[in-house]
């Protein structure tokens, strides 16, 4: 069942979150107080977790833990299994003191003593995952109930997660090789834990003496009025309500309480209020034949209450959203709830409006919510007050009690995978959740991942296709421009002659233009003409990007910023040049070339303020902007009928990344951005500038040839033994001392390799080798990968060897199951 782990995980993003226990590891100890659950895994039984809390001292036992055990009546004693926010799979068992018996329940958080030290070490917060009779625990091999430590406090008034979510979070911890408590901590939003947006309010109700006193006429005039108001309300009321009803001060209510005529009741109440959003009317559409056929298949699964994953492959503008909405309609009619996951960037007013127009009760979970808002949504969802949850990745954990359907739109987006612990992919979690709930999952995309496409070919997913755009609109013609011979590009311009003529024509014609360039900043490199070196970040193996607006060279991998030196730090020559074009430089060029056009730039630098993204898109929609240029922020999901031209300024930016998915990403981006035009009878065209026009990803994207692309690409993946044919688990090691990191990488890889051989597990170890970014934030980085056909083999190997991994020193590691980020 539960395997034992002590996973280190310390990549940049999560270094703070999941730092290893600072205390030194101590000898394996299967029966320490608060000892791990017996797990049934052989590894678990033989090897204690590395970070069990130490045994208590005699004083500690005398002081508390042992007493609680002795005092409680035998039949009453219960223990609780608690998981902490640490890279440990195990739960620790604690005794539940008598006074907390009624409060303790799985899914609530508790404070518990943990670790060595006076009075049982530090106090930690954990989630209760099980409550059971102490006898059951006492019967476990090696348990010592008399040594159990005691729970200090219960933190929550109600469980934060239900049994299903506990189970799902445990599955995530097992699959993604991290701690169960880490998953739970990240699943429940911070605001929910703090009960943000709720307050404990005091209400008053009459007592019998109070009623008698009123009848007996023994109250003052004001007290009489207040008492009558309290009684008339028929339910506990707030003091200010009484004050306004009885036209008295709140002091009168307090005095009634003091005299025993009224008593207080405390209730936790929502205090956040939300504005109602104005909803524009909408016209009922007639589904196309393709939409109807896809929908019929989905409805059959919904009516049969069966789990199935549907891959809805629909070309851009084929009306996938309409299919989602109709499927959700059905689910809502059953009184069930639907979850719709979209990439964060797609959480635009346009998306939200589409759902709000069609459903009464929609909760939108985006990253700009305050803790109070998020927590309010969470409670509304859990109470069944919400029909549809629309949100980014983490909305997959929405506490829907009657889940009926999950949809992942733009399933190819890599943001569905979390880049910090727990490193889950929302698609995998959704699959698991839907399977358990017996409900369908729909994955929609114009450019599905090779993983999903392959699953559909194998019959694990059911393929639904929308091959035509709605309204019989054609996909836009795409012209690939070889910029190697373009006279303007040779002069250093970003926009070549053909594209610039096309922009001019489109604007003169009253159309709008999208220009896509996936590099932010002004110039992506500062380069020495004398020695050929680029200016590098002192802390990372990354070249600095020139940001002219700041007057500084900036590292896009860390916070480093600096001025540009006069002389090359390598050779001393005064020959430093800004090379290449980022979105800022593109903006300047476009302003020069099209001085009369209104231009907006959209990238993470220009869109720092919350809401600015929405604001620009609204202006664009109202045709107040002629040319919208930017990074992938503008490439996705937008549905603007007046866009008659899309220009891909440099199709090659992703192509040469040392990443086996470089081709797939290039294809997806070009196909998606090309799909933003030709969405009305005005038509549209696409120009793709490239220095590698023959590259299959570019050629296929220009031909709208997804099927051709996946056929080629799958063949390559097979030849390379790469996903979707194999599953990978990437282990990254990092530390300030290069030799130590390398040594540790070798030790770990060797240990895994030896164990794979001796246990006959079909897992290959690839590497170790330096990472593509060999140094990041002052740390040297090495990685290796475990590759297997079956991810269970990887898991099993990892969990066996993990307790033996050397710890301590300055080397940390990160485990990334099904990695997408290969830097
Ligand atoms: N049956 C229909 N009849 C008329 N218009 C429709 C129909 N279905 C969808 N539409 C409209 O077609 C447009 C494109 O639909 P939608 O945005 O859902 O496409 P999509 O498949 O999600 O495209 P993309 O992948 O490019 O985001 C929208 O404006 C939508 O309102
Ligand atoms: Zn850096």
From TrEMBL:
Chain intervals with Polar residues compositional bias? 1-10
Q: According to its UniProt record, what is one Pfam family this protein matches?
A: DEAD
Specify the superkingdom: Bacteria
Disordered, as annotated region: 1-55
- Supply the alphabetized keyword list: ATP-binding, DNA replication, DNA-binding, Helicase, Hydrolase, Isomerase, Metal-binding, Nucleotide-binding, Primosome, Zinc
Q: Which cofactor does it need?
A: Zn(2+)
Give the co-factor note.
Answer: Binds 2 zinc ions per subunit.
Presence of the UniProt keyword RNA-binding in the record: no
Indicate the transmembrane segments per the record. Answer: none
Q: Which residues form the Helicase C-terminal domain?
A: 563-729
Q: Which EC main class describes this enzyme?
A: isomerase
Residues forming the Helicase ATP-binding domain are 301-466
Q: Which reaction does it catalyse?
A: ATP + H2O = ADP + phosphate + H(+); Couples ATP hydrolysis with the unwinding of duplex DNA by translocating in the 3'-5' direction
Gene3D superfamilies from the UniProt entry? P-loop containing nucleotide triphosphate hydrolases (3.40.50.300), PriA, 3(prime) DNA-binding domain (3.40.1440.60)
Record-level Gene Ontology MF annotations: hydrolase activity
Binding residue positions for Zn(2+) 1: 528, 531, 568, 571
Give the function comment from the record. Answer: Initiates the restart of stalled replication forks, which reloads the replicative helicase on sites other than the origin of replication. Recognizes and binds to abandoned replication forks and remodels them to uncover a helicase loading site. Promotes assembly of the primosome at these replication forks.
**Subunit structure, interactors included:** Component of the replication restart primosome.
Q: This protein is called what?
A: Replication restart protein PriA
Species this protein is from: Alienimonas chondri
